[in-house]
């Protein structure tokens, strides 16, 4: 027998152990769903959300058991962590997708050009017809005024905290910004109500609602802008200062353009938060069925308040119910359009890369 034959008869060693096939997660997920459905049917569980939770738990447990037997405990823990990430992702996406689908399917019943270009006027809440023009106009004006107040103050505050803030003053500002981040919207509405309307006697108006929205928007803008400015490399600042450029111009021409994409995204997140606030509108704007183009005088409508009033007067069905869902669809589309516009502006204003 030759040396080559002896070498060929030796067992081939490998550093790679046994592993599950690529289709195993799908098979485990399918089996978990089937078992969860059987448990739900046999146990008399009519809620399909419960079925989904049972399937999620079974999927994680089955993944660990199967992976531990085939690949070992260490690899099984890794697969369990991956499966939990997927479960968490689905738990977050499924309700969101369900919300969007429900709003879309119910809102398209009366969503048309007439609905967007007419107000309620003399139309009763129980009658068909009418639209949201007055509420859409009010929301645009109120959110626009809130942005004019909150965005400059928030961005400049963040610039101060990152570029200039040292000592007790910056600590105090950071503390109050953190406190304001958790303020409920009704508290901001009560503050503006007591100061602007009761003490100064300025009356109900869209601007009063904008003041409350600005209070809610400001801390979000400050924190998001602050984090984006911190991500700008110090080397860029040092290079600019080394050329003799003043610090204010360095901030204006180097720091802010570099982080404009993240700043814009943070502003849009703040706008998305305030666009659906109802409590301050109930206290300060008061609402009306007629068109009021002046946000500084007399009550004014808004989309969140319109949705609340229509649903409250619908008794669960009827024309008001359809208008409420159509207004909710409009509000979602409004926020989506703002986000797309913000991404376009951020891409346009972002520093150009490459040669």
Which properties best describe this structure?
flat, 355 residues, mainly alpha
Distance between the termini: 67 Å
Tally of DSSP β-strands: 0
Question: What's the average pLDDT?
Answer: 86
Along the chain, the helix and strand elements come as HHHHHHHHHHHHHHH
Overall, the morphology is flat
Taken as a percent bin, the fraction of beta residues is under 5%
Radius of gyration over all CA atoms, rounded:
29 Å
- Poorly predicted regions are 6-14
Tell me roughly what share of residues is in helical segments: over 70%
Major pleated sheet? none
Detailed description of the structure:
The protein has 355 residues and is an all-alpha fold. The protein is built from 15 helices and no strands. It has helices at 3-9, 24-42, 48-71, 73-107, 113-117, 133-164, 168-181, 185-199, 206-230, 234-242, 247-258, 260-275, 279-285, 303-312, 319-349. Helix 14 packs antiparallel against helix 15. The protein is flat.
Summarize the structure.
With 355 residues, the protein is mainly alpha-helical.
Secondary-structure blueprint:
Elements: H1 3-9, H2 24-42, H3 48-71, H4 73-107, H5 113-117, H6 133-164, H7 168-181, H8 185-199, H9 206-230, H10 234-242, H11 247-258, H12 260-275, H13 279-285, H14 303-312, H15 319-349
Helix pairs in contact: 2-3, 3-4, 4-15, 6-9, 6-12, 6-14, 7-9, 8-9, 8-13, 9-12, 9-13, 10-11, 12-15, 14-15
């Amino acid at each position: 027998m030759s040396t080559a034959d002896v070498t060929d008869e030796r067992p081939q060693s490998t550093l790679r152990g046994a592993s599950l096939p690529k289709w195993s997660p799908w098979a485990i997920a399918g089996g978990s769903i089937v078992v969860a459905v059987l448990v739900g049917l046999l146990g008399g569980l009519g809620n399909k959300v419960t079925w989904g939770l049972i399937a999620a738990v079974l999927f994680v447990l089955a993944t660990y058991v199967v992976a531990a037997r085939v690949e070992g405990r260490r690899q099984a823990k890794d697969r369990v962590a991956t499966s939990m990430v997927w479960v968490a992702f689905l738990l977050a996406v499924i309700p969101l997708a369900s919300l969007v689908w429900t709003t879309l399917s119910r809102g398209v019943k009366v969503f048309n050009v007439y609905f967007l270009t007419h107000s309620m006027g003399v139309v009763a809440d129980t009658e068909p017809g009418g639209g949201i023009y007055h509420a859409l106009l009010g929301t645009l004006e109120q959110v626009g005024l809130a942005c004019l107040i909150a965005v400059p103050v928030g961005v400049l505050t963040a610039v101060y905290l990152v570029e200039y803030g040292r000592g007790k003053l910056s600590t105090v500002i950071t503390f109050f910004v953190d406190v304001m981040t958790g303020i409920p919207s009704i508290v901001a509405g009560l503050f503006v109500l007591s100061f602007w309307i009761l003490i100064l006697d300025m009356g109900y108006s869209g601007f009063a609602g904008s003041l409350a929205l600005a209070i809610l928007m400001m801390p979000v803008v400050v924190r998001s802008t602050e984090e984006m400015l911190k991500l700008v490399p110090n080397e860029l600042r040092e290079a600019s200062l080394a050329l003799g450029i003043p610090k204010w111009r360095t901030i204006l021409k180097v720091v802010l353009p570099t982080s404009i994409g993240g700043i814009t995204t943070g502003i849009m997140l703040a706008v998305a938060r305030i666009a659906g606030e109802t409590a301050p509108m109930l206290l300060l704007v008061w609402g009306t069925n007629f068109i009021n183009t002046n946000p500084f005088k007399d009550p004014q409508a808004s989309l969140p308040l319109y949705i609340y009033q229509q649903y409250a007067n619908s008794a669960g069905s009827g024309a008001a119910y359809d208008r409420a869902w159509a207004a909710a669809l409009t509000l979602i589309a409004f926020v989506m359009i703002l986000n797309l516009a913000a991404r376009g502006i951020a891409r346009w204003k972002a520093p150009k890369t490459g040669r």
